[in-house]
Amino acid sequence: MRETDVNTGLLIGGKRVEGAEGERIAVLNPATGEPITDIAAGTPKDASRAVDAAAAAQRGWAETAPRVRSEILRAAWQTMVDHTEELAGLIVSEHGKPLADAKGEVAYAAEFFRWNAEETVRIAGSLGTSPSGDKRIIVHHPPMGVVVMVTPWNFPAAMITRKLAPALGAGNAVVIKPPRETPLTALRIGELLEDVGLPPGLVNIVATSGSGAWFDAAVDNAHTRMVSFTGSTEVGRVLLRRCADRVLKTVMELGGNAPFIVFNDADLPSAVEGAMVAKMRHSAETCTAANRFYAESGIAPEFTAALAEAMGAVKVGDGFDESVTCGPMINARAIEDIDGLVRGAVAAGADAVIGGAPVEGPGFFYQPTVLAQVDHGSPIAREEIFGPVAPIIPFDDADAMIDQANDTEMGLTGYVYTQDLARGLRVSERIHAGMIGLNRGAVSDPAAPFGGMKQSGLGREGAGEGIYEFCETQYIATNW
Ligand code: NAD
């Protein structure tokens, strides 16, 4: 790990404390499998205490002028940018992604503070007259109150700031449960927020080794008004059921299974470049990752060969080595899952053009892999791979291919490559996904609404609407 002295206590009410039971959990470097350090782990009691602390701080914050809140968010953007090297180093240490990707993540994560600093002073309501003319209708958007946030390990900084910045901008206080795999980046962001003058208690960070009981305690605390979750659809369903008990507002950013469609008329070099971006950024562990490649028969052989060549040029290794373009997977379980899907596809007749096996340890590495002649019904085309594996499914009939692309409970992202823009737009509209990359391999942008259709989620993060997710709507009837 690069030099850092992140305080590894829980952050509750502006104080660094140990968990009620004094438990510590190890944080591992996935490039070596060795522990980096350990951090305090909270109990259900700590989670509830953090909600109380958030509630105590929130009222004053909601009454703070939007401009003042906005300036603090803007300072948070600046300090994250100023600490890019340090934050990126933490991300590489605990997640493993290549340093260049980690720096990209810091820039993206920081931008949510700048974007939402601008949105904070523009939360708009409305004034209308009822059709009967008997009253005026005043609509405004107060904050929700206390928001509980649960985040995944694949973007240790950005999956926090994408929620945190709009939540704070709108006047809320939060309790964050960072993932146990990557808590250090979260804790450091908490410190940077203190440094720019965010009042204590507004951001509470409580890691745990027992997520289920932690979550139960957090949502059962009467102060909690909302849950914002990013993670797998499987866990999202569990949390939604739990939130139903208290009818809590939820935003759910869940799993993906993106189709990447290449038509015969696509520009081959840009399709391959886009495929590499959509598949391999951040060590292939993104929710927006291209999961299945549908290549029209006329271009499929060339596309497969060119993609295999590009995958062959990927350097796998420790993310701190600046020549590395794919780091380790998060843990041994991830390697087993990826390898199981690859073996299953090969056993069912797919051809491993390149790769197809784990890399020997230490650390958790998988060979960049291209599988040709994959069947649409194969588990590798139906489950989220979350690893450096590109299964290619050839097609002739575009309508049938679109049906296959939509034949999934997920609907987060899709990618379409064609030089016929009208066709590209038509096909994009027919893909049931919240985000489409049309002749582009990356969709994420703080200025765009991020989120999924179907079981990929509920609600949106970023753009104009992101901040309203953290607001109530109140209407006042009056006349004068
Ligand atoms: P995960 O669902 O296993 O875990 C996410 C978080 O939930 C972690 O903090 C985990 O500790 C916590 N958790 C697990 N069980 C819980 C429970 N019973 N109660 C409360 N919390 C619980 O996901 P992951 O492996 O960390 O991340 C990968 C997944 O996240 C992938 O499916 C990916 O697609 C998805 N993801 C989605 C987006 C998006 O914006 N849509 C972004 C990033 C990742």
Overall body shape = globular
Helical content (DSSP H or I, runs of 4+): 25-40%
Question: Ranges with pLDDT <50 over ≥5 residues?
Answer: none
Percent of sequence in beta strands: 15-25%
Ligand kinds: nicotinamide-adenine-dinucleotide
Number of strands: 22
Tally of separate helices = 15
Fold and architecture overview:
By secondary structure, the protein is α/β, with parallel strands linked by helices. 39% of the residues lie in helices and 21% in strands. It is built from 15 helices and 22 strands. The chain has helices at 44-62, 66-82, 84-94, 99-120, 158-169, 183-195, 211-220, 233-244, 268-280, 300-312, 332-347, 379-382, 398-406, 421-430, 465-468; strands spanning 10-12, 15-17, 24-29, 34-40, 126-129, 136-140, 146-150, 173-177, 203-205, 224-230, 249-253, 258-262, 290-296, 351-354, 358-359, 365-366, 369-372, 389-395, 413-417, 435-438, 457-458, 474-478. The strands form 6 sheets. A 7-stranded mixed sheet has the order 14-17-18-13-12-19-20, sandwiched between helices. Strands 9-8-7-10-11-21 form a 6-stranded mixed sheet, sandwiched between helices. A 3-stranded antiparallel sheet has the order 5-6-22, with no helix packed on it. Strand 17, helix 12 and strand 18 form a beta-alpha-beta unit. It is globular. The mean pLDDT is 98.
Please render the helix and strand layout as text.
Blueprint: E1 10-12, E2 15-17, E3 24-29, E4 34-40, H1 44-62, H2 66-82, H3 84-94, H4 99-120, E5 126-129, E6 136-140, E7 146-150, H5 158-169, E8 173-177, H6 183-195, E9 203-205, H7 211-220, E10 224-230, H8 233-244, E11 249-253, E12 258-262, H9 268-280, E13 290-296, H10 300-312, H11 332-347, E14 351-354, E15 358-359, E16 365-366, E17 369-372, H12 379-382, E18 389-395, H13 398-406, E19 413-417, H14 421-430, E20 435-438, E21 457-458, H15 465-468, E22 474-478
This protein binds nicotinamide-adenine-dinucleotide.
Nicotinamide-adenine-dinucleotide binds next to helix 7 and helix 8.
